[in-house]
Model the fold of this input.
Amino acid sequence: MNQSLKIDPYGFREYDARWVYNKDINAEGITNLGKGFGTQIINRTKKNNPRVIVGHDYRSYSEEIKAALKKGLISTGCFVEDIGLSLSPMVYFAQFDLGSDAVAMVTASHNENGWTGVKMGIKKGLTHAPEEMKELKEITLNQKFITNQGNEKKIDNYQNIYKDDLIKNNKINKRIKAVVACGNGTAGIFAPDILRKIGCDVIELDCNLDWTFPKYNPNPEDLEMLHEIAKAVKKNNADIGFGFDGDGDRVGIIDDKGNEIFSDKIGLLIARNLSVSFNNSKFIVDVKSTGLYSNDKILNQNKCKTIYWKTGHSHIKRKVYNEKALAGFEKSGHFFFNKPLGYGYDDGINSAIQVCHLLDKENKKISEIINELPKTFQSPTMAPFCKDEEKYKVVDEIIDKIKKIKDKKDKIDNQEIKEILTVNGIRFSFEDGSWGLIRASSNKPSLVIVTESPSSEERKIKIFKFIDQLLQKTGKIGDYDQKI
Done:
């Protein structure tokens, strides 16, 4: 193998490719990734010169990475169409709008500075799932590349076409006052403009582009970002606060009182709203999401069904597609709207627009609408460090231990485990509807832990302590990013 080539195999994650640039991958490694992806597209589409839409986020090194990626794609025969500075959903939209064969978006989303990555997809509206990532890894690391002559063209001003598509059918009547926070990420040049044009009164927060992320990472699950939005909502007496992640495919919500609303509950409100017009629909939610969907009275009245599925934008997107579901919701803020509401992929701005429609329709504040849901006590998503090469083994060990606890009918906070779901790590539920989740992160060396109780704050904490004790005993857990 070439001496100067650097490409860490662990960067090929479950559905995204992510590396720390120059430490885990260098420009030549990125070019090989382009060669691998180009080869994969040609093998799967059976075309010699497939058309590939390429975009990049605002990080200082993203253009350099995109240039290296394009070089690889072109060397296999791909015809690259570069739409420039983009959000991930803008690249996905372009595949439908321009009828291309594949997409590649250079972004590490909300990961800290230094990280890079590529979100890739071949089938319209879907991004790589584990099967495609495994195949891509195999082609790239073994250098089984096709060689052919491709070309490249730049498409100017594509941002306006994407914006207009979201604005045209989404005008609202009510003047909703919205704080729009972008954490200095790429969404800053999209979200305020689009929401203003559908009829919102927009208050911008950290919408100027600054790739150093001077305040906090643009991550709507990050409490620091949510607290800043809450302050701005209260100060401006706004109706709602929206927080967008680095590549614009996720949104976090703050209500009019400055309270954070976890995205799974926003999803439930949107599902309820949609179920009235779309009876007998299916909704897909991830295993980190609230247990309230299971027995929701409005969804039941409208004969709608909810399926809990693997966490991760590629998994939920694919499940929405395969089940012909109306929408999918992830606790992390990825929402997916299928036809007639969207193209099936995750778009944080379209999600914010759906929330605006909800407010436009109801003569109530968002805090009042949320209060109509049964109360539950939810933890944030907590991520203790665990090495990439150990995290799946640790989860398997925990699954065995929890299954034994269930079989023995041992109690946690005087509750027996009643149900276990293992489609993605382990989600274990108790008699009162409380539950805990442990899974391996798909894009970082960490685990993911969430707990929820409809009974009490104490029970939520006790379930977390139970999980934490099991994990500490493995001796393979490092610091948490945040904990309750």
